[in-house]
Amino acid sequence: MALTLEQLNRATPEQALQWLDGLYEHSPWVLGQALSERPFLSLAHLRHALAQVVRRAGADAQRGLIRAHPELAGPAMLAHSLSAASAREQTQAGLAQCSAEELARLRQLDADYQARFGFPFILALRGPRGSGLTRQQILACFARRLDNPPDFEHAEALRQIHRIAELRLNDRFGAQPRLGNDLWDWHERLAAHSDPGFAEQGQLTVTYLTDAHRACARTLSGWMRACGFDEVHIDAVGNVVGRYHASDPHARALLTGSHYDTVRNGGKYDGRLGILVPMVCVRELQRAGRRLPFGIEVVAFAEEEGQRYQTAFLGSGALIGQFDPAWLAQQDADGITLRSAMQQAGLCVADIARLQRDPARYLGFVEVHIEQGPVLGALDLPLGVVSSINGGLRLSGEIQGLASHAGTTPMGRRRDAALAVAELALYVEQRAAQDGDSVGTIGLLEVPGGSVNVVPGRCRFSLDLRAPVDAQRDALARDVLAQLERIAARRGLRYQLAETMRVAAAPCAPAWQRRWERAVARLGLPVWRMPSGAGHDAMQLHAIMPQAMLFVRGENAGISHNPLESTTSDDMQLAAEAFTELLHQLAEEQAEEHTGKAV
Amino acid sequence: MALTLEQLNRATPEQALQWLDGLYEHSPWVLGQALSERPFLSLAHLRHALAQVVRRAGADAQRGLIRAHPELAGPAMLAHSLSAASAREQTQAGLAQCSAEELARLRQLDADYQARFGFPFILALRGPRGSGLTRQQILACFARRLDNPPDFEHAEALRQIHRIAELRLNDRFGAQPRLGNDLWDWHERLAAHSDPGFAEQGQLTVTYLTDAHRACARTLSGWMRACGFDEVHIDAVGNVVGRYHASDPHARALLTGSHYDTVRNGGKYDGRLGILVPMVCVRELQRAGRRLPFGIEVVAFAEEEGQRYQTAFLGSGALIGQFDPAWLAQQDADGITLRSAMQQAGLCVADIARLQRDPARYLGFVEVHIEQGPVLGALDLPLGVVSSINGGLRLSGEIQGLASHAGTTPMGRRRDAALAVAELALYVEQRAAQDGDSVGTIGLLEVPGGSVNVVPGRCRFSLDLRAPVDAQRDALARDVLAQLERIAARRGLRYQLAETMRVAAAPCAPAWQRRWERAVARLGLPVWRMPSGAGHDAMQLHAIMPQAMLFVRGENAGISHNPLESTTSDDMQLAAEAFTELLHQLAEEQAEEHTGKAV
């Protein structure tokens, strides 16, 4: 019989400790401290309490916890002296069936890893869906993590330990993330469509209106129908729109969604999570035969990343009446115009203007998105509430000095363009850090036609500056540009700088942000407010209606725009539960409003 | 009748001033001060004295001197109110025949230039050979110089003013640089041979054993024969060797020369000057029917730049027995092996070993070379005596951090690989400057696959460190590597660093350096000792015999490995005169030695 949370909350400390024994390998101290915080509202609450104990314990105790774990396919496995849970996990991963060669490779990686970090390599052997990793996946992950910096890998080891505990806890409680697992499967199946040249290498790239992109749209519309949406169609820019009607045909609707296109060699969750989470919630409503006092309109935006054409936010832009016919003449890398790509896909350009939404018919816009950053992971939090989508400014620059012979030009007589960019980059780092929540990045950096023995005469660079509030971003930009001016004057250099993008900050609507906060709190999780450093479709809808976003923790320190982008079924389950909570809140509010009116 | 130096030295100050009137546009103060330093040993001495007056006068007086010059094709020309010399120069350059369009373009450039620098654009309208610049050349130079930093252009204006004075002085004294003009013509004619792909664009590229390269060898050997060398041949690596016999058939020889290959899109003087200067001197000896008590062996080295194959110093290396047969398997960009290129050129690989010289048969090695740096130009000195060829160390590095989202990764959580290189670059600058005569350069700098919105996860760079003494270079390298270690540790980054080249410093033989110093002093010029930052063929010969080098000032702030590399007939004349002085000294020493022996 599986344990229930109620039993755990009511049990004596000794009994509770016994029930949870082995969650953390040879480290019952973690359990003891966490259990003193009973009662738990949810398993998520318990998991967070456990993680907090480890967080507060400090680096030495953490290292002790890490070292309490056995090596993969190590002496303990061979000597059959693993803990029961470890033994089961290592067996499920097929480590006992390693060939001599694989075993030798594992032993070598183990030795290298221990030499570098001073603790054993730890990996949750069941993947995010709960199924086992293959031996190849394990070896690849091992080799990759060997390259991490030590403090990074210390944190990664702890994340893996919490994940192992989470999986073991699910077993004890017979609690499987049903919606999360479905979401996992959907993401996997959607990721099977990838553009030519990437698909062959198992990489995910879905750019606007390619065959893979259109296959995604067909797949999504099919799933929407299967979920029980009342109306499903693909609109004039390729957005997949699903509507789940309200109980009252005149009621307004909640608008939600995100994008299904990807960057080149991107991740499976970026954008798609915000389409699939609402879809799974609507499916559950439909299965329960339930209608809400408001409609739900889920839009899978066709284009957000601006990869094939310079048209970022084409999908959500169309909903706010932002489509410039001049874009139709843009060509992709193969010389295919946007117009002909749209015609080829059967989209009717003349209908785009009609996609503009009337805000009076909507309650507001919400978007679920993977965090794409390391903050939630570092805090052991599965969900975060977005306070504002940062305003951004991008510049493209070139500094000109004088290319000269690296051997014959004395240090005092140089006009080194790259050194000026070096100074600027370090200034940007320090100045952005001063603000606390601004970020500044020189992502492109190049000495064009440089040579080992030539003092750089030119240096090209990009500048990306972001802050939660426009005024803060502008002050940052002012200081950075003034510093560049000073550097160039002091070094006798010239420069050009061109603004390539300016996006206003989109603070989330306070009432809607509070709804997400309540939803997170009802799951038993602490509320963490954070700005979104990345741009999102919600920024577009911001122009015409209130918007608010929910972030979901990403694995691998929140890596994004990268095939390693990932999350777990358990975290996606929580996202779906939070979305459902939000729907409930809205339904209650609508009901109260209705009652109020009736009175 | 042309003036003579003797007349000038003996004249009253008033008379002397009158004779030189107009050398410096509306600025007789320059003349007055310089004349107080009479007597002058040479026109070069007088020119240097004039330049020193301007140098000592300070920036305000210099700006006054610059502003005393008329605009090109400006109001003064149109109103016929130019000084006589300016009027002649502007007329010779055909500025009076400018089309309306050209005049408008000149007026615009003039306006832009004055707005940027606060003084008129000054250009010696007669080219380095004394012939007029074309209007196209003038316009191109104008446009290019508009991009210079202000202090750079201030110095360039002064250099042009001294050059104008030099040309006017030559006219007054009826003194044409006869050898310099011949050298100018030879360089131009040799530069007519250029590799395919470059020749069409008027660019100079002569890489090892191409058709253009072999045409250069044929041209040089033809000229050597015409100069009266007794033996001329092309050796087994393609060096062109000319021998001018001593009066005594058993006497040792002076070895001299430099390379005739070039970098891609390089300059006309790099290397070739050191072949042609000795050639013109031998021609003069032969014309005078003169034999010296030692032979002269001029070698035009076939390969120094390592452009087609990774075989820098192939030509001079062969003379010290440095030829590795493994190199023969190297392929060029088209897959042609060195072996097959040599066979194709009719070179006999088996004979290379026999090219090794027996030091007992040589007095030593001297090399004339264009400076390839800004030092002599900045000091208004046409010649410099090399004290040492700097030791060099080249490294190729990559720093690895963690690529992450530029918007979502807080400043404190980044592993920015480029910022580490930025810190390193600024440290190299400061640390090399500390030594005074060390140089350190990061010439290659790149964030591979970087993107405007991604924190750089990798950064590649090169490191080039040089110093006149190996121990000094090694201390510099130690400090730089230790700093990299600290930066990487502090930022949590990994890095790889590989040494790609290490060349020992080659201090010039003191006795030979003194011979160059005496030769320069006898021309009436101050002796300026300087290390060579660039590597030269003399470094190779250094292994088996004493060596010493003479540097010749380059125009355009000493720019090199660039089509703008240039020098003047007057400076080349001085180089030929210094070489002749060196030959005289050696002859005297040999005679004394002989007499000594006889006694």
TrEMBL record, chains A, B:
<dbReference type="InterPro" id="IPR002933">
    <property type="entry name" value="Peptidase_M20"/>
</dbReference>
<protein>
    <submittedName>
        <fullName>Amidase, hydantoinase/carbamoylase family</fullName>
        <ecNumber>3.5.1.87</ecNumber>
    </submittedName>
</protein>
<dbReference type="InterPro" id="IPR010158">
    <property type="entry name" value="Amidase_Cbmase"/>
</dbReference>
<dbReference type="Pfam" id="PF01546">
    <property type="entry name" value="Peptidase_M20"/>
</dbReference>
<dbReference type="GO" id="GO:0050538">
    <property type="term" value="F:N-carbamoyl-L-amino-acid hydrolase activity"/>
</dbReference>
<comment type="subunit">
    <text>Homodimer.</text>
</comment>
<keyword id="KW-0659">Purine metabolism</keyword>
<keyword id="KW-0378">Hydrolase</keyword>
<dbReference type="InterPro" id="IPR017580">
    <property type="entry name" value="OHCU_decarboxylase-1"/>
</dbReference>
<dbReference type="InterPro" id="IPR018020">
    <property type="entry name" value="OHCU_decarboxylase"/>
</dbReference>
<comment type="similarity">
    <text>Belongs to the peptidase M20 family.</text>
</comment>
<dbReference type="Pfam" id="PF09349">
    <property type="entry name" value="OHCU_decarbox"/>
</dbReference>
<dbReference type="GO" id="GO:0006144">
    <property type="term" value="P:purine nucleobase metabolic process"/>
</dbReference>
<dbReference type="GO" id="GO:0000255">
    <property type="term" value="P:allantoin metabolic process"/>
</dbReference>
<dbReference type="GO" id="GO:0016813">
    <property type="term" value="F:hydrolase activity, acting on carbon-nitrogen (but not peptide) bonds, in linear amidines"/>
</dbReference>
<dbReference type="InterPro" id="IPR036264">
    <property type="entry name" value="Bact_exopeptidase_dim_dom"/>
</dbReference>
<feature type="domain" description="Oxo-4-hydroxy-4-carboxy-5-ureidoimidazoline decarboxylase">
    <location>
        <begin position="9"/>
        <end position="170"/>
    </location>
</feature>
<dbReference type="InterPro" id="IPR036778">
    <property type="entry name" value="OHCU_decarboxylase_sf"/>
</dbReference>
<dbReference type="GO" id="GO:0019628">
    <property type="term" value="P:urate catabolic process"/>
</dbReference>
<keyword id="KW-0479">Metal-binding</keyword>
<dbReference type="GO" id="GO:0046872">
    <property type="term" value="F:metal ion binding"/>
</dbReference>
<keyword id="KW-0464">Manganese</keyword>
